[in-house]
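hey so u asked for the seq, here:
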Amino acid sequence: MTTDERRIVTGLYVPGDRPDRFDKAVATGADLVILDLEDAVAPEAKPVALDAVTAWLRGRASGGPLVQVRVNAGADHELAALRDLGVAVELRVPKVESAADIDRVVAVAGDLPVAALVESALGVENAGAIAAHPRVVSLALGESDLASDVGSRDATVIDYARTRLLFAARAAGLPAPMLSAYPDIRDLDGLRADTERGARLGWFGRTAVHPSQLAVIAAVFAPSEADLAWARAVLAAVDRGGVATLDSGEMVDPAMLGRARGILAAQPGR
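ran it, structure tokens below
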């Protein structure tokens, strides 16, 4: 699967024990819907949540957004239940610290694709090996758990982890990771500022915990008209190779084609 085929900008978490919200989540227009069996569900409600998620997936019509299910770490019965459905769904696996953790998931889940959620210092340091696992299709960062593990949520700490995961993902041929959900659903200015910071670091897209956050996320990652004009000019100037000069005076060469194509691929509705 190529990076361009996974240009997912917005993701929305939905508690697995709230089946009344599943179709509503799809209707928001989010590119990714994450049915959560882990942190959003109380321990006593997890069996009911698994039943609700598998029933909805079994009856779901084809098409629509990508769907992931965030399972509980070590919950083999959840992996088996999702495997046995035989439907298109990805596993969002929390607390991944090594490629061996993915091996254990694959031993039960079979061919289901894995989005590896890194949430500890050990996981961050092993990000390269995790990303290189053949069943992993994307990386994600659990920032709150990571902050608890290392004892800091300072921007420098989070930026370091974001950078490590970005390089690991791209080195393995995976898309740039999506930013973690911003927990304060009322602070849309804070959401925008942090999303812009993540975008400057090379991350692409963000998950949300409330539909009200989706428009802000989409706006941050939508290319401006100036960006689109630059990208088209680069493609026109150097698509056949060599160095060229744009009307603005900027010298461009084939090394810039990847960025230009990425900008054009990020157009809304593409």
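The chain has twelve helices and nine strands. Residues 1-5 have pLDDT under 50 and may be disordered.
lmk if thats what u needed
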